[in-house]
Amino acid sequence: MKLLPFLDRLAATPAATGNAAPRRALLQQAGRAALAALPLALGTTQPVAARTQTTAYDAITQLLQLERLQMTYYSRALTTSGLIPAAQVADFQRLYDQQLQHVALLQNTLQTAGALVPAVPAFDFSGRKNVATNPVLFPNVLSNYDDFLALAQQLEDFSVRLYTTYAFINPDDAQFAKVLLRMLAVEGEHSAHVRGLRRDRGVAVKTWPSSSDAPIVRPAAAQALAAAATAGEDNLTQLASAGVPIVFSDFLNVFKFTSVPDASLAEAFDEPVVDVDTTKKRTPQVIAQAALDLFS
Amino acid sequence: MSEHSFSSAWRAQPLGRRNFLRVSAASAATVALVATTGCSTETPEPVEADPHQIALPSADKGLFYYGYLLALALSTTYDKILASPPTDLTTAERTVIANMRDHQLVYRELYHYYIDPTIGGALFPTDFAFNTATFTLTTRLGVLAAVQQLADLAAAAYPVLLPLFTSASAYPRALLLKTVSVQARHAATIRDLRTPGSFADSTAVEPSTGLLRTKTPAEVNAALAPYFAPYVISVANLAVPV
Question: Which InterPro entries does the record cross-reference, listed alphabetically (chain A) (predicted)?
């Protein structure tokens, strides 16, 4: 696998995935690394607007932190005696192994570019952020198998969406896009499997996000996770070009024997991370970070 | 889950033929696909020596044709299964395949729309079809084996297909990107139904990298070729995969 073309451009002109992401913290982190030598150091010469865009560095580090989160979750579950039924241990070992490989790939990508690899957060899956007096947002996820599966599903769905969000963060680098798409597809297989395990245990859930899925109930303070993982999956409006929706009913209709239910049309597309509240003008990066921040 | 009371999703010979095939006069042995927006209802004119040779066009349009053929293969097979499902195929499994059929139908017609926004008519000769006769669709295990073969193929195709689009197709690519993980979900779903726990196993994911195994358009085309006979598709004009 050739990463060099990607590395050359890791720092290049940021792709416009949004227009209002605070980047100060990441740039400060990046400051001491060789990254400073790369054009990625957007620094002071850039206009303000440019500094609020999501860069490839932002994308790779955020994907890395999410993969680390998932890997750690499976690692803790596998070492918690009696949590995962014996018949499913091999499944979760595979999930762990593949997330570990993704972590290594993303980490190597940053290292090879001379970019700063962010520290591994002290993950706390209770949602208390390592403060015992904080309220528990994700109860029993490492003691009750059903609760464990529900959070696993949300994290896998979240990762599907984050890879979708960033697959073409460097639009000119087909090779790295392909690598990200291959990881995206693996996350899709993971999510489908976890959803299937839940369905086998009586939960009304499909192996792809669907409007008929039973909602995973969380306290209000934990909604950032659902916002990143599944919000907007019922979207029926897709664009043909800027501001122009595709009129699906023109070619999916009874006259052409191509009618499908709205639910199927929505299921056919896994959405990227989106802000369903468009008035707040939050980028996918900000939405995703809010979800990640629930766990450390 | 709502029942699928709507009409049969696919017909071997779609309606209307305002778009038609033009036989390439330039090539001795190929039919070039040219989606026109004309209003002729004529059938293709097979003036070439071998009218069963079909070369997909170059550039993004060729990629749309390639995606169309893949979706045609899957939707046709799933439709065939649902038309007379084996008795040992459970209701839940039929629902899964019906959902997958719906999704592939959306993709197929979306590609048709990208090839020809007027959706004027058929893209291929009227006798062109994906022939499922060699699949064993009369038993549950035969059905699941066939569906897995096709779903794996589609999942493996998309990570190669998507990066081939030029910047002129930014919007189509952004929408098709949303189907990459759905194809993978289909593959994992069927794998787990056929052999529980076989999702993302070493036949689907490279053990050394944790990346999905992929297939190029040429490899996918070779896998589908027996089912499109007597037609022979060429993907030689498509962009070279990275």
Answer: Ferritin-like_SF
